[in-house]
Design a protein that fits this description.
Elements: E1 14-18, E2 27-33, E3 38-42, E4 53-56, E5 60-66, H1 68-77, H2 82-102
Antiparallel strand pairs: 1-2, 1-5, 2-3, 3-4
Amino acid sequence: MHERFGVKATRSGTNRSSDRGREAGQYAVVIGVLDDKFLMLADGERRKFDRGKKKNTSHVELLSYISPEVQSSLTETGRVTNAKIRHALYTFFEQEALFEKEN
């Protein structure tokens, strides 16, 4: 799996990279905002939606990608499939690779 991940805002459906703890450098999607200090993260593989990881906001890195599929699914049903989470991460990595290739 890739080493970094992130989001634009602390909303559900955004991508984040953990910068502390065992998950340091791992990518995940914000699946919930518990309060202004804690988020719930999932990557669709090791951390599934139904067993998300509670992370302190100061221990994650914001990146500039929000998955519209994940965000709309969470808004409409309150849930998202692990496949959609994995797809959102894959799409993010593809876009990041294209950006790096252009620059």
